[in-house]
Amino acid sequence: MTARIKILPSGHEFNSEGNHTLLEAGLSAGLRLGYGCSNGNCGECLARVVSGQVEKTRHHDFRISAADKTDGHVLMCRNTAVGDVVLEAQEASSSQQVPEQQLTAKVKAINFVTEEMALLHLKTPRTRRLRFLAGQAARLGGNGKASATHSIASCPCDDMQLHFQIPRQPTSDFSRYVFDQLKRGDSLELVGPYGDFILDEDSPNSLVFIAWKSGFSSIRSLVEHAMSLEVAEQMVLVWVADGDEGRYLDNLCRSWADALDDFTYLPVNADGEDPQGCMAEIGRVLNLPEQQQYDYYVAGNKAILDATSAILLQQGVSPSRLRFDQILHD
Ligand code: FES
Description:
By secondary structure, this protein is α/β, with parallel strands linked by helices.
């Protein structure tokens, strides 16, 4: 059965299939619903049923007060929709509304896609997940091990499966630890999320994502989130890297372009370390229709961000339409 859920006051709507909880269905649809444990303990996903019927599918330890019960409050992580439902629920509108969390996750897989790049797949416990917004980062390591902050390279729609892209960096203890010692089944401590390189979901503009080398990490999270929300009419992804090998998830980008009518993927070769040269090439291949409005999300090193900013501002793009994520390593 498919139920249609509407959230107030935002007016966001999504479908819920089978007996997915209200929270699972909302997160899968890309909503920034307020929640904590996902497990019926904290009460942070409390929402009021305005109309329609829900059904409790799992036990919860959190005690809902008598007044809240009478008022129609339920836990979104423990209830499923029985037909169409309207709910009054909290949604985060900024990164400040997502608290810092600390948890331990297990390494589910490490995939060394090239000599220089490790794709790290972590799985959190079912009862202790990481709530974050697409584009944010987390600190990995801890417990006496080396640690470093990296962008989360996956979508918040699955908060148990977290992906990171760790470049080889001889000067980073954490990078050396990942490449030389870390293995499947090991534990890593996670603290976060951090950063406000997040999608402006209220903007009606088309989206341009520019990833410089491993800046693709936060860009991937934003693209997947934007796809689940279906917010933009048109999305353009530019990935600047050293040759084909530098675009270590090229097939993924091509599959997005194949699957979506309004998605354009433009691979661009890095012109050495010359950001001006790269931007000239990006300008040449982008060729965006002038009458259309765009929001730009750019992830790269300081030089590429400075060059991109200067060029886009010169072209008359409003500073409010630019968002930058500075990476500390290529
Ligand atoms: S998220 Fe903690 S009770 Fe639902």
